[in-house]
Amino acid sequence: MSGDGDPEAAIMAMVRRFYDLCLADSLLGPMFRAKIADFAEHYGIVADFWSHSLLGTDRYRRGTPYVHHVGLKVEEDHFTRWMAAFEQAVAETLPAGLAETAMKRARHMTQSFRMGLLPLPKPAPQTT
After folding, report:
1. Cβ within 8 Å of residue 14, ≥6 positions away
2. Which of 58, 39, 38 is nearest to 48 (CA)?
3. Exposed, middle or buried: residue 85 (CB in 10 Å: 0-12, 13-18, 19+)?
4. What domains appear along the chain, each with residue ranges and CATH number?
5. pTM above 0.85, yes or no
6. Which three-class secondary structure state does DSSP give residue 36?
7. Relative to the CA of 34, which of 3, 42, 60, 70 has its CA 20 to 30 Å away?
């Protein structure tokens, strides 16, 4: 875990570590490679989002991240693996205060994205 250093550097380290983990994942890696044309640019966008979320900066001006994920074909396993990679990256790179806030935000985002991106479960047959 990063400690007393620059919080912006810790956020970028977290973003890079997260993508390293995801790109090595057999489910997430192919999806990320298919959707992200320029990883260096993408890292900057994602770092700006987390800087805004964790430090209150105003660099992220792309609206809600949800709209950028709407077209993805995802299943529950994507979310499980995404959260595991994010949690590991956060634990390895962010100081405790930022890590706690990042995990709260990520859990909230994951729940919201699940609700919006996963199909509704089929209703159970009614018995009379």
Report:
1. 50, 89, 90, 92, 93, 94, 102
2. 58
3. buried
4. 7-117 (1.10.490.10)
5. no
6. coil
7. 60
Query: Could you give the angle at the alpha carbon of 37 between the alpha carbons of 34 and 39, nearest 5°?
Result: 105
Distance (Å, whole) CA 31 – CA 83: 16
Write the DSSP string, 59-89.
---S--GGGGTTT----HHHHHHHHHHHHHH
- If you ran DSSP here, which 8-state letter would residue 65 be given? G
What does the pLDDT look like over 86-120, one tens digit per residue? 999 999 999 999 999 999 999 988 787 766 555 55
Using alpha carbons, select from 73, 65, 63 the residue that is nearest to residue 15: 65
